[in-house]
From TrEMBL:
Any one of the GO CC terms: monoatomic ion channel complex
One MF annotation (Gene Ontology) recorded for this entry: voltage-gated potassium channel activity
Gene3D superfamilies cross-referenced by the UniProt entry: 1.10.287.70, Ankyrin repeat-containing domain, Helix hairpin bin, Jelly Rolls
PROSITE patterns with a match to the protein in the record: ANK_REP_REGION, ANK_REPEAT, CNMP_BINDING_3
A Pfam family this chain is assigned to: Ank_2
The organism of origin for this protein: Populus deltoides
Family from the record: Belongs to the potassium channel family. Plant (TC 1.A.1.4) subfamily.
The protein's name: Potassium channel
Keywords: ANK repeat, Ion channel, Ion transport, Membrane, Potassium, Potassium channel, Potassium transport, Repeat, Transmembrane, Transmembrane helix, Transport, Voltage-gated channel
Amino acid sequence: MMMMIQGRERTRGGVGNGGDGSDEEEELEVEKFRGESKPSWKRLFGLLRMESSIRDGIVFRDGSSLGQSSVSDAYIIRPDSWRYTVWVHFILIWAVYSSFFTPLEFGFFRGLPENLFLLDIAGQIAFLIDIVVHFFVAYRATHSYRLVSSHKLIAIRYLKSRFLVDFLGCLPWDAIFKVSGRKEAVRYMLWIRLSRAKRVTEFFERLEKDIRINYLFTRIVKLLVVELYCTHTAACIFYYLATTMPPSQEGYTWIGSLQMGDYRYTHFREIDLWKRYITSLYFAIVTMATVGYGEIHAVNVREMIFVMVYVSFDMILGAYLLGNMTALIVKGSKTEKFRDRMTDLIKYMNRNNLGKGMSNEIKRHLRLQYDRSYTETSVLQEIPASIRTKISQKLYEPYIKEVSLFKGCSLGFIKQIAIRVHEEYFLPGEVIIEQGHVADQLYVVCHGELEEFGRGENDRAEEFIKRLQTYSSFGEVSFLCNTPQPYTIRVRELCRVLRLDKQSFTEILDIYFSDGRIILNNLLEGKDANLRNELLESDVILYIEKSESELAMRLNCAAFDGDYYRLKRLIETGADPNKADYDRRSPLHVAASKGDGDISQLLIEHGVDVNISDKFGNTPLLEAVKGGHDEVASLLVKAGASLAIDDAGGFLCTTVVKRDLNLLKRVLANGINPNAKNFDYRTPLHIAASEDLHSIASLLIEAGASVFPKDRWGNTPLDEARIGGNKDLIKLLEVARASQIG
């Protein structure tokens, strides 16, 4: 009964391997088949024999079948195995026979003859075996798309769906009819067997998706089968209505009163079966065509009622056939678009020799798009952008809010992320991000389950890391830090994920950049304590430092450009105005050096440190003083700034040497000590005396400079003046000495 050990079936495919190789090779060679102008019927039936759905034989590294609910399930039938495919086509033949013969048996037979009875029993035995087989056939879960191989779940699913109808259809209703005293109500139970026609419709659906079979040919055959089967069933019912009248009143039936030429259908029950069936079929087809000649003429009330129902149904069927033919001409059906797209993809894969594994993965993903119809972009394309924004926020914002990576971020940032994400689906076994690749997409899991694993030092053994479920994110380390992806992400269940590209994320951070630091902190907090994550943490810290340096540069650039509103927006959205660049220069340093009072006032209002020093020991007040920006210097002094210079003596001495009287006045006015000494213990007054700078010496004395300090060589400023011989300068210093002594 085609039972097979599951472990044996696992060896037929691996991750991303797509299952049975021969079938995939046949599909990949579609161009070869299409290249022949007239394919033979033998090849066509060969393709039909090999036809089956795309193979998904996926096995995880732990040896379990994808979606396997219990390792103890010893015997299971995989729906993609070739044995089961043969069995499905064998049962399909019986389904075609049963679907055709059931109306015929109901209308033309009241008790089957022995030869047909034995054939009918053989068919019912085949369907009974199929019922048993169904209890061992694995199935794919609707939501997770995982292959469920638990006998209990398989049995529950089948018992809840088709079991009762299949079982009732297998009962020998003809024998029950004879045993029950030929009660007419029993014969109506035969119509239960028409449920087997569903197998035929499923077969045509598979053929429509099979790009190896001509789509136009498949659709035309399907439409012909639908029309002929409807007329066949109607013909059997027309004849059955005639047999419900007793033989004495057969003239009050459509066939009993029928005369074609000189031939009359009197005693029609004694006419040959084939002739009776052809007559009924002829009138059923002509009545359906409604050409105005040859239709059935109802004779009794029963026939009138059925003709009304039949003609009404004919209108619906005609519209269905006409609509399908129109769709074939304009090529607008969803299935045909799928086939055309699949054909183009296969041509591309054949031309570039992508390999069977990658080709199968692409085909499975395209098939998923067709089955799930997740084309939200095309659906919402004609809707105004404002409405699309609201839809995206309503659909995706609840998921974004719950992601730990975005914990603590502003509501505006969350809304922008929800607007920019794109929805995607992935099949079980697909690898979304491989270890070592640099990710330019950030993913958030909406539904489904994924696994995260990495390779050890020997680059062979896979190390399982963790499971990812709803509200999880992945790819964030590589995405944010521009480093290789540390882990491989693979799908375990059918997954619905939200994807955000790096360009959109960067544009959002340009506005909500303070949330970027929150995200990086969340990224650090979410890492477990092990060696690999410690390395990741160092990468994240380096990226944080880089981001902060870039942010400080943006603040300084805004201050340098005098862009008040840009600087204000940066600060209001969370930027720290105390951040310094690589030279430890803050925005206040830049604003003070430029003499920009508005920006300086803005920075002071936001609590910036007015006494911060840069790499060279310069404070904002010193920058303002150097630039001669008295207004800015006044603002800084009012804010509590003091002129603290690391080497005040050296600075003053240099200023005196440069003879920069204005700078000297400003620094002295802002409280610098005029007696500060340089490395030779020389004061600014020493330099002024030695250089015969009378005006500068006078300014220094007025500011409180002392004439008594001695330098490294024991000289005072007065000694330096006497050496120079400037009498006015000597007199000035002597007067100052007398004043300071007194």
